[in-house]
Design goal:
alpha/beta; Rossmann fold; Oxidized Rhodanese, domain 1; eight-stranded mixed beta sheet; 13 helices; 13 strands; 33% helix; 18% strand
């Protein structure tokens, strides 16, 4: 450990040499390298967290750059995790970085988080959030949670020393479209930087076993008024059971790679479950049934062997759609893994 790099921390009573050594031994996984992930990662690297994992399958777009502070225009079109690690390593080359250049799914989430001591949820959609929460329950990992809505920011810690979980605080929405992402609702970059840095603060407090960790408490911050509120919440006895049940059954493969997806033949019903705006911007054909309308779709004309191929932007909503149909007895419902964002540009449904 380079004591000169951490000179300021060594002067602080609550860190000092013993605390800095503890930070250097901790491994932290940050899922999402966007508006929250960038400031969080910057603070974690600067603080000397010894092993930092970055998980995200997204590419950098020009609309990201104003609030995602590890990127610039020259990085447009490149993988966020790759560029983020390069930027972080230039800030602190003394620690280890691990790149996980993919989106989290039910199939990869458990082995992904297994080696890490603490998990940070810096994603911007609730389907991913519940998946990460459930996996952390199963693997016994503390989960630092941050969220942004325009100028508002929210922060808490789940599953730390048997504290409540995401399902205790918020009921799971029925559809992904019920809640807007930052890209859809807008995000004030001041809020994302503040909350992202505060998420890193919670990681450090957990690593140091500090008594003021935000477990069972939701901190809400409004950037314009500077109002800060603290809301206490309690455990729901059924929440962890639901998290465990998510991974309790091994089922037939439900996700298809782009290659397998493109091998579809006659008799396949291709269904786009995205919003009207997404469909208008880009699609690969098939029927258009937004996820929230799927329950009203008449399945009575199809037998149990009908093949349904669902797709969306990133594979999260289509996976939910495939599960809905499988729950109704249609065992040949499949989802395009990682969505059309990563679909081979040469594949076109005809």
């Amino acid at each position: 450990m380079n004591n000169n790099y951490y000179k300021s921390h060594l002067k602080l009573d609550f860190i000092a040499l013993k605390g800095q050594q503890a930070l250097n031994k901790v491994s932290v996984l940050v899922i999402g390298t966007g508006g929250l992930g960038c400031p969080c990662l910057t603070a974690l690297a600067s603080s000397g967290i010894g092993n930092i994992g970055l998980a995200d399958g997204d590419l950098i777009s020009s609309s990201n750059i104003s609030r995602q502070t590890l990127f610039n225009y020259a990085h447009t079109g490149k993988h966020k995790t790759t560029i983020a690690i390069t930027a972080l390593r230039s800030r602190n080359p003394l620690i280890f970085y691990q790149e996980h250049c993919f989106f989290v799914t039910e199939e990869n989430i458990l082995p992904l988080i297994e080696p890490y001591d603490i998990v940070v949820d810096a994603t911007d959609n609730f389907q991913a959030r519940y998946l990460i929460n459930d996996a952390c329950i199963v693997k016994g990992k503390p989960l630092v949670y941050g969220a942004i809505f325009q100028t508002e920011g929210h922060l808490t810690v789940f599953n730390y020393q048997n504290s409540p979980t995401l399902r205790c605080l918020f009921k799971e929405p029925e559809a992904d479209e019920d809640l807007l992402s930052c890209a859809e609702s807008g995000a004030y970059m001041i809020s994302t930087n503040i909350i992202g840095t505060m998420m890193a603060n919670e990681v450090i407090k957990i690593a140091l076993e500090h008594e003021e960790v935000l477990r069972g408490k939701l901190l809400s911050f409004e950037a314009l008024s500077l109002n800060t509120t603290l809301t206490h919440y309690t455990a729901d006895p059924f929440s962890k059971a639901k998290s465990y049940s998510r991974f309790s059954e091994i089922t037939k493969a439900i996700e298809l790679t782009a290659e397998d997806f493109s091998r579809q033949s006659s008799g396949i019903m291709l269904i786009d479950v995205r919003t009207n705006a997404e469909r208008k911007a880009q699609h690969i054909g098939g029927k258009h049934i937004p996820l929230q309308e799927l329950e009203q779709f008449d399945l009575t004309a199809f037998d149990a062997n009908q093949h349904f191929y669902f797709y969306c932007q990133t594979g999260l909503r289509s996976l939910q759609a495939a599960k809905k149909l499988r729950a109704k007895g249609y065992k040949n419902a499949f989802s395009l893994k990682k969505g059309i964002t990563n679909l081979n540009s040469q594949f076109k449904h005809t």
